[in-house]
Amino acid sequence: MKSERHSLAAKTSVRRAWEQFIQFLLFVCAFISVVTTGAIIFVLVTESIVGLGDSVAFFQQVSLWNFLTDTKWAPQYGAGEFGILPLLVGTMWVTGIAAIIGIPFGLATAIYLSEYASPKTRSIIKPLLEILAGIPTVVYGYFALVFITPLVIEPIGRFLGIQVDTFNAMSAGIVVGIMIIPMVSSLSEDVLRAVPRGLREAGYALGSTRFDVSVKVVLPAALSGVLASFLLAISRALGETMAVTIAGGVRPTITMNPFSQICTMTSNIVSMAGSDSPAGSVEYRSIYAVALTLFVITFTMNVLSQFILNKYREVYQ
Amino acid sequence: MSDPYYQRLQRRHLTSKIFAGVCLISTWFGLVVLAVLMTGLVLKATGTWDPTSTGAAKATTNWLTPTLLTHQVSSDPENAGMIASIWGTIWLILMTAILSVPMGVGAAVYLEEYARENWMTRFIRLNISNLAGVPSIVFGILGLTAFVRMFGMFPNASAIGIPMGVGMLKIPLPFGKTLISGALTLALLILPIVIIASQEALRSVPQSIRHAALAIGATKWQTIWHQVLPASLPGIMTGVILALSRAIGETAPIIVVGAVSFISFNPGYMESATDLVSDPNVILQVPASPYTVMPLQIYNWVLNSPNPEFKNVASAAIVVLLTVLLLMNGIAVFIRNHFSKRLDW
After folding, report:
1. In A, which residues are within 8 Å of B27 by CB distance?
2. pTM of the predicted model, to two decimals?
């Protein structure tokens, strides 16, 4: 009897240790995401701000002032010129055009799905939008370069009398805009649907039309969530790479003409990573500085969108 | 009828109708554009109709041929195939899945079943949702530094060999531009997606199942392993498949971690699929092998080929890529619908 109890106790303590071990293992899994973020920041900072050991970081060779104010980006030309403004301008063109297309269409889609569509229509449209979101960006780039530029942008350019480059910001912006429609619509639809029925019914009881209820009651009630979805979509457009590289080109210029070739921060990274710059050279390190800029911008927008979502969320009982 | 109230009411109804129409058109806008582009793509790939014919003489050639699926890349568009990139994608996704699924599901189990509501848990949650918003190219930069170059810790490239029965598994140090680097990078990239999807699947398992198992004396882990995980498996699998199909389409991080663009051999120098059985040693050569993947092959055909005919080859390759993705999405939807019917709590 005694030995039996003893073995049971031993078994229990082994099992308890096992349980503890499993819990620790699972915690490690969860912690890997934190390590990943830490590693991203570590890599970007050590390569661009403070060099580790005897390696020299990007900003120890190129001053931050030059980086932010120089109007030329030509890393492989002579001593190299590293002004990020041309890349920022290119990124802003693509993101701006994408936002002009993606946000209104996405929001209208969200309003339609949440306020007008029958459950059956919704069950057809939502999976179709998911397909739209699941298409690889390299395919969008192909569409922009092979179909949209020659068949849509060039005729428009001819009509307006503007020279259209084979690679142009307009076609890249249009496809990125189409790409973010599902993102805006699904996030916005969620918050629109979370607005309680009572508010809508109160609106109808006062004699409102559907338009009045959707735009003057539901939309303001869900405004914070809708804005958060805009920010997330814009941050996605900022980080979009392949479509922009294929359709927008890789020539960094400060241009006011959306029909001309541009270079975004992301396509600059791709073209530099694909080139044969030796590891350790300034031009090689420049991709870290650009990536850091991109990371800071998108990270700020993501945090901001979460902040808006939490802070200004109307809580309904 | 000229009653101003009535006029105003009519105007408001008209506004409402116009607004409904605008919303409806907007909803279909993206889908119609997509349908038009897809049609154009298939017509171009099959050579049926080509509004943007690039190689005038051969504009009507059908590019969607068995050659594309069986041949290696070639400077002759008619003979060009994408077999190396197909194998590259298969191996890359397999390795990505092996790396990311246990980590992702483990993290989700911790967050849903174990974590107490404290600052650490909140920090991890916040971190995961932020990580999901980091541009994929930044993950590429991370992979380039941490895996391809390993922070320059190994200035002289070396390798360690692990005996694995049929042969030696060679692990180069640093990992270099090999499949391991690519798979590790993609695994970190899709980790947030896998975690979030698994969390949702775990949350959908009712508490009563857990209570019942715990009440009959099961330990916490026994409850999770034998009850909660099997019950949430369909949801987890759906999420994993969708995450992997996202990984298949990822190109930017793969370019940065150095998939080689012009590559004319399969990973592990495998001649054909029968090698997997007749010479299992090739499997061990795969992780340390240079590689290319389907979207990267397409990117190269679209952008870096002097011969414009390759844009046609690219359109056929895109059809192949999209077919694979559509199949994976179909499987995910099937699992979701099939099992959610059976597991009705």
Report:
1. 108-109, 112-113, 117, 125, 185
2. 0.90
